[in-house]
Amino acid sequence: MKKVLTIAGSDCSGGAGIQADIKTITVHGMYAMSVITALTAQNTTGVYGIFEAAPEFVGQQMDCVFSDIRPDAVKIGMVSNADIIRVIARKLREYAAENIVVDPVMVSTSGSALLSPAAQEALVEELLPMGRVITPNIPEAEALCGKKIENRRDMRRAAESIGEKTGGAVLIKGGHLEGEACDLLWDGGEPCWFIAPRIENPNTHGTGCTLSSAIACALAAGYPLGEAVKRAKAYLTKALKAGLDLGKGSGPLNHMAGV
Ligand SMILES: Nc1ncnc2c1ncn2[C@@H]1O[C@H](COP(=O)(O)OP(=O)(O)OP(=O)(O)O)[C@@H](O)[C@H]1O
Ligand SMILES: Cc1ncc(COP(=O)(O)O)c(N)n1
Question: Is residue 150 part of a domain?
Fold first, then answer.
């Protein structure tokens, strides 16, 4: 059985973060492991509290995982602060982790900061260069390239500029733009578009977490990056289309809608 590790924050309401990742990995028939960077008190209406893990404890969790059950792929989500980022980067290097997918989580759908502003530099310098692919949404890509993104041409420019900075592939997710749900993968050379119809479903809590975990699963299974993104997007689209409607705000996806 393939093993996939998620390094992320806990969402007690189960729609995003570690919980979304574990559901995604499990539904892909893989063995899920988790290193928790922070506990959040949140639900579909907002994030009400954050309790960060001590950086040494994040390192200890990584030692326990890597010294015993080596992951075939690693997904990284909410990392909270610069000290946690530095420990994660050091441990990933120490264990020569493979197939790393970094979702540079900065702000939740409900508008709360999930990364301290001071940590953005550490994220860019220490963690993003370790990713086989990084998966910013539009606001995150804007923060990383320092330019507004309003259309597909802007997405392409931003992907190239971010990729040149980090040295790896970039998938910019277009969920926050209008019209079709278009994501752009840049891996050097010609970019590749992944286009799906926009689903009229306001319940999009955890779409980014789910997509990046599904990409990690496909990389663990040995698919090349382009095929991994295609499969992950198909899974995400199915989970959104299933139309689960839970909670008072932007609700979770149905992770069990099928792979
Ligand atoms: N209404 C929609 N219909 C179809 N696909 C969507 C829709 N909204 C988002 N997506 C897709 O979901 C994936 C995640 O994109 P999005 O831009 O929402 O990321 P995100 O903001 O990081 O997600 P999150 O809600 O977890 O923060 C992308 O593949 C995007 O195209
Ligand atoms: C622990 C954690 N990680 C990530 C997200 C982002 O997901 P979303 O933007 O859908 O709220 C979140 N809300 N909580």
Answer: no
Torsion of CA 204, 186, 126, 30, to 10 degrees: 60
Who lines ligand 1 at CB under 6 A?
Answer: 16, 109, 137, 173-176, 181, 183, 196, 198-199, 201, 204, 206-209, 211, 233, 236-237, 240
Number of domains in the chain: 1
- Give tens-digit pLDDT for 18-35: 999 999 999 999 999 999
pLDDT digits (tens, 9 = 90+) for 190-221: 999 999 999 999 999 999 999 999 999 999 99
Average pLDDT, the chain: 96
| CATH code of the domain in which 229 resides | 3.40.1190.20
Is the distance from CB of 107 to CB of 114 less than 8 angstroms?
A: yes
pLDDT tens track for 106-156? 988 778 889 988 899 999 999 999 999 999 999 999 999 999 999 999 999
CA of residue 233 to ligand 1 center, whole Å: 9
Q: Domain span at residue 7?
A: 3-140+204-241
Assigned domain for 148 exists:
no
Helix, strand, coil % (nearest 5) of the chain?
40, 25, 35
**ipTM, interface predicted TM-score of the complex:** 0.96
Ligand 1, pocket-test mutation among 103, 173, 182, 250, most atoms within 8 A of CB:
173
The fraction of the chain above a pLDDT of 90, given in percent, is 95
Residue 181 half-sphere exposure toward CB, CA atoms < 13 A: 20
User: What pLDDT score was predicted for residue 108?
Assistant: 84
In b/e form, how buried is each residue of 121-147, taking b as 16+ CB within 10 angstroms?
ebbbebbbebbbbbbbbbebbbbbbee
204 assigned to active site: yes
